[in-house]
Design goal:
The protein is an alpha/beta fold and about 750 residues long. Among the domains are: about 140 residues, Rossmann fold (3-Layer(aba) Sandwich), CATH 3.40.50; about 240 residues, Valyl/Leucyl/Isoleucyl-tRNA synthetase, editing domain (Isoleucyl-tRNA Synthetase, domain 2), CATH 3.90.740.10. The chain has 26 helices and 26 strands. Strands 5, 6, 7, 8, 9, 10, 11, 12, 13 and 16 form a ten-stranded mixed β-sheet that branches. Strand 11 and strand 12 form a beta hairpin. Helix 3 crosses helix 6, helix 11 crosses helix 12 and helix 15 packs antiparallel against helix 16. The chain is globular and about 95 Å long. The chain starts with a helix and ends with a helix. The structure holds zinc ion (ZN). The site of zinc ion has 6 residues, from loops.
C-alpha cells in the first residue's frame, strides 16, 4: 500500500509547491543529513515532525514547502571512504551489518563521493517510502557547483561585514589528522568544549615552578598544600610565557598538550613520588607549603598539579583527611582548612559540610565527590562573599602590595568579582597564566586519536564573539518561537558563550574559501542559511543559468534585492522571477533538528541569518526534538545500535514506524524505541484496521441520529478540535493520542 501511494504522489507531483499569490504559505525545513551512512531512526524522527506539520498546514489551506538536501561537506564521509578503501573484509562486513546494506555494494565504492551518493540514494528512496511530503525538485548536495557559488557569496558577505577574522585562536585539534575538529569530526558526534584553565605559579624552594591548574583562582588564599599524583610521570620543562622562558613542573601528558599551544621543551622526567615533600611559596600569601601525594589528581586535566583548598574544595578536604588519618600523629597541624568565603546555610568550611552530608568516605568516590564539588562551586559562585579578615592570611609579600590589594579589593566582595580580580592580579604580576583544555575530555576524533586544544595561527574564523553580532542574534532569538520554550536558556547561553570558530579545514569535501585556495569551508559553517537556497535552486536549473553566472552580484540581487539587475549577465526576467520566488517563501516558518544541534548548528543558523538578511526575513520558529534511544541507549555507530530507515520501513511499514515515533514521546522528550514498541504499534494499527473492516459487515445501518450517535459525533468533534490545538502548538504526541 505504501509503495502504491508513494508512487502516485510522485506521479501526481502532489508535494511540489510553487508560489500561489493569495494563498498563505508555510515553509519548513529539517537539518539535512550526512550521507556517511543511511538515514536512520534519528532522522526518521526529526523529519517526521515537520512532515506532520506540513500535512497539518496543507489541511488548513496553506501552500506548504518542505524540501530536502544532502550534506556532503566535511570529513565524516572521508573517514568511512578511507575505511572501505582498505578493503578489510572485517571492516566492510561490519559496516554492512550496522547499516543493513550488502557488502558487495560497499566494496564497489571507490571514493568519498561514491560513498555519499550511495547512501544518499538509499536514504532518499527510504524517505519517499516513509511518506515524507517533500518537494524533490529542490534537492541538492553541498558539492553542487550552484551551492558552492551560494556559499562563496555568503562568506564574502560575512567578510564584508567584518564577521570573518584571521588570526590565532584555540581550536579542538586532532594531532593525527593535523587539523581542527568539531562535532561532526568526532566519534559519536561530541562537540569538544574548549575553555580556559587558570594557572598559578608557586615558586619552589628547589628552584622549580609548581604550576597548578584551577577553575577557582580566588581560592589561592586558602591553599594548605600542593597535590601531585605519586603514580604519574611528571616533566620538568622549559615553557614559553609572556615574560620569557620559565621552568615548570607539570605532568608529562600536560606538557605534551601544552606543546600544541606554545613552545614547551622537556628538560627531564621525574616521578610524582620524587616531588613529594618539596616546598613552594604561595604567591599571594607568602606561606610556605608542602607537596603531598593524592591519587585523585588527574594528569590529563590542566597541568596535573593541583593546589589544595580544603575549606572550599571537597576533593581537597577528603584527600587531606585521608592523608591525616594515615599519618602517625593523626594531626591536622599546619594543614587546617582556611576559611575564605561566607555562604548562607553553610559553616566556615562548606566543603566539609557537603562531604559529610553525602557521607563521602574516600577520595576514590568520584561520583559523590563530583556532586559535592559542583554544589560548593555553584553556591559559592552564586551567593558567596569573600571574608573580611583575609588580609591576615598574608605572611610575607611575594608580590609587593599584596596585603593592600587583599584588604581593599578582595575582602568583603562577591566571589564572582574576587575571581576576576585575583586572576588579573596574578596575571599582571607574572604569577598567573592561562592554558586551554577540553572540558568534556576525553573527546576522540573519528580516527581514534584524543582531541587536544591547539592555538592555530593564520586561520580563518567566524567571529561569533563579536558583541554587536551577539546583540542582533539575541534580538532575533527573542522573536523566535521555540519548541520547547525551555530550550531558550540554552540558546541564550550559547550566544553569550560562543567565540571565534575555525571555519575551514585542509581536507574534506566542500567549498573553497574564495580568497584562500586549499582551505575548505567546514560543515557547520556551510549549513547556516541553505534554507534560502531551496527557494530558487530548481529554477536556476530549469532556466539553465550556468554556475559561473552565479556571481556575488547575482546573489545580491536574488537574496537581498540590491544591485542593478541589467548588469548581472543573467536575463532580467529570470532574476526577477527568482527574487519573487525567494520572497514568496522567506522567511522560514519552522526549522527542525535534534536538540543536540542547539549549541552549534541552530545557534549558527540564527547568527548567520541576522548577519545576511534584513529583520523581516529572520526565522520564525525552531523545533528541537529529543534523542531516539534504542533500548534505553543513545544510538551510535560505534555501538552498532542503529535502526536504518530503509530497514525500518521495509520491515514494519511506514505507518507503523510513523505512529510509533509520533506517539512514543512528545517532541522535546527522548523517545525510546525497540522491537517491542514497533510490534505493539503494529498490533494497534491492525486492530484499528480490523475494527473499520468489521463495520462493512454491519447490515442494519440506519440514518437516524439518536443520542448515542450524537454523543459519538460530539466526542469526535472534540478530538478534532483538540488535535488542531495540539498541532498548532507542535504537540505531536498529544494530537496523536487523541486521533489514534
Ligand atoms: Zn583524527
Amino acid at each position: 500500500m505504501a509503495r502504491k501511494w508513494s508512487r502516485i504522489w510522485e506521479e501526481e507531483r502532489v508535494y511540489e509547491a510553487d508560489p500561489k499569490e493569495g494563498l498563505p504559505k508555510y515553509f519548513l525545513t529539517a537539518a539535512f543529513m550526512y550521507p556517511n551512512g543511511p538515514a536512520h531512526v534519528g532522522h526518521a524522527r526529526t523529519y517526521l515532525i515537520p512532515d506532520i506539520l506540513a500535512r497539518f498546514f496543507r489541511g488548513l489551506g496553506y501552500n506548504v514547502l518542505f524540501p530536502m538536501g544532502f550534506h556532503y561537506t566535511g570529513t565524516p564521509i572521508l573517514a568511512l571512504a578511507e575505511g572501505l578503501a582498505t578493503g578489510d573484509p572485517q571492516y566492510v562486513s561490519n559496516v554492512a551489518k550496522v547499516f543493513q546494506v550488502e557488502s558487495e555494494e560497499l566494496m564497489k565504492l571507490k571514493d568519498p563521493v561514491d560513498v555519499a551518493r550511495f547512501f544518499h540514494e538509499i536514504s532518499k528512496k527510504a524517505m519517499k517510502l516513509y511518506g515524507l511530503s517533500i518537494d524533490w525538485r529542490r534537492e541538492f548536495t553541498t558539492i553542487d557547483p550552484e551551492f558552492k557559488a551560494f556559499i562563496r557569496w555568503q562568506f564574502k558577505k560575512l567578510l564584508d561585514s567584518g564577521y570573518l577574522t584571521r588570526g590565532s585562536h584555540p581550536v579542538g585539534w586532532c594531532p593525527r589528522h593535523n587539523m581542527p575538529v568539531g562535532m561532526h569530526d568526532t566519534k559519536d558526534d561530541v562537540e569538544p568544549e574548549i575553555d580556559e584553565v587558570y594557572l598559578i605559579k608557586f615558586a619552589g624552594l628547589d628552584g622549580l615552578n609548581y604550576v597548578v591548574a584551577t577553575l577557582r583562582p580566588e581560592t589561592v588564599l586558602g591553599v594548605t598544600n600542593i597535590w601531585v599524583n605519586p603514580n604519574v610521570k611528571y616533566c620538568i620543562a622549559s615553557v614559553e610565557t609572556s615574560r620569557g622562558t620559565d621552568t615548570w613542573v607539570l605532568s608529562c601528558e600536560a606538557a605534551k598538550k601544552l606543546g600544541f599551544q606554545r613552545n614547551v621543551e622537556i628538560v627531564r622526567e621525574v616521578s610524582g613520588e620524587d616531588l613529594i615533600g618539596r616546598k613552594a611559596v604561595n604567591p599571594v600569601t607568602g606561606r610556605v607549603i608542602q607537596v603531598i601525594e593524592a591519587s585523585f589528581v588527574d594528569p590529563k586535566f590542566g597541568t596535573g598539579v593541583v593546589m589544595s583548598v580544603p575549606a572550599h574544595a571537597p576533593y581537597d578536604y577528603v584527600a587531606l583527611r585521608d592523608y591525616v588519618l594515615n599519618k602517625k600523629s593523626g594531626s591536622w597541624e599546619g594543614l587546617e582548612p582556611i576559611p575564605l568565603i561566607k555562604v548562607e546555610g553553610y559553616s566556615d568550611i562548606p566543603a566539609k559540610d557537603a562531604v559529610e552530608r553525602l557521607d563521602i568516605k574516600s577520595q576514590e568516590e568520584h561520583i559523590l565527590l563530583d556532586n559535592a564539588t559542583k554544589e560548593v562551586y555553584r553556591v559559592e559562585l552564586e551567593s558567596g562573599v569573600m571574608r573580611s579578615d583575609l588580609a591576615n592570611l598574608i605572611e610575607q609579600e611575594v608580590i609587593k602590595g599584596a596585603r593592600d590589594f587583599i584588604l581593599n579589593e578582595i575582602s568583603g566582595v562577591p566571589v564572582k568579582e574576587a575571581r576576576e580580580k585575583i586572576k588579573n592580579f596574578l596575571l599582571s604580576n607574572g604569577f598567573g597564566d592561562l592554558m586551554y583544555d577540553v572540558m568534556n575530555a576525553p573527546v576522540y576524533c573519528r580516527c581514534g586519536t584524543e582531541i587536544v586544544v591547539k592555538i592555530v595561527k593564520d586561520q580563518w574564523f567566524i567571529n561569533y564573539g563579536d558583541t554587536g553580532w551577539k546583540k542582533l542574534a539575541l534580538e532575533a532569538l527573542s522573536k523566535i518561537r521555540l519548541v520547547p520554550e525551555e530550550a531558550r536558556t540554552q540558546f541564550v547561553n550559547t550566544i553569550y558563550w560562543l567565540r571565534e570558530k575555525a571555519c575551514t579545514r585542509s581536507r574534506g569535501l566542500g567549498t573553497e574559501l574564495p580568497w584562500a585556495p586549499g582551505w575548505i569551508i567546514e560543515s557547520l559553517s556551510d549549513s547556516t542559511i541553505y534554507m534560502a537556497f531551496y527557494t530558487v535552486i530548481h529554477k536556476i536549473r530549469e532556466y539553465g543559468v550556468p554556475p559561473e553566472k552565479l556571481t556575488y552580484e547575482f546573489w545580491d540581487y536574488v537574496m537581498l534585492g540590491s544591485g542593478e539587475p541589467d548588469k548581472i549577465g543573467v536575463d532580467r526576467k529570470v532574476l526577477e522571477d527568482l527574487r519573487r520566488e525567494f520572497l514568496y517563501w522567506y522567511p522560514l516558518d519552522s526549522r527542525h533538528s535534534g536538540k543536540d544541534l542547539i549549541p552549534n548548528h541552530l545557534t549558527f543558523f540564527i547568527f548567520n541569518h541576522v548577519a545576511i538578511f534584513p529583520e523581516s526575513l529572520w526565522p520564525r520558529q525552531i523545533v528541537a526534538n529529543g534523542w531516539v534511544l534504542i533500548q534505553g541507549e543513545k544510538m551510535a555507530k560505534s555501538r552498532g545500535n542503529i535502526f536504518p530507515l530503509h530497514w525500518l520501513v521495509s520491515t514494519y511499514s511506514p505507518d507503523v514506524v510513523r505512529l510509533a515515533i509520533a506517539s512514543g514521546a512528545e517532541v522535546e522528550s527522548d523517545l525510546n524505541l525497540d522491537i517491542e514498541v514497533l510490534d505493539s504499534t503494529k498490533a494497534k494499527l491492525r486492530s484499528i484496521h480490523d475494527l473499520i473492516t468489521s463495520f462493512s459487515n454491519v447490515s442494519d445501518l440506519s440514518d437516524v441520529i439518536g443520542l448515542p450517535e450524537k454523543w459519538l459525533l460530539s466526542r469526535f468533534a472534540r478530538n478534532v478540535l483538540g488535535a488542531y490545538e495540539d498541532l498548532s502548538k507542535v504537540r505531536v504526541r498529544a494530537a496523536c493520542l487523541k486521533i489514534f
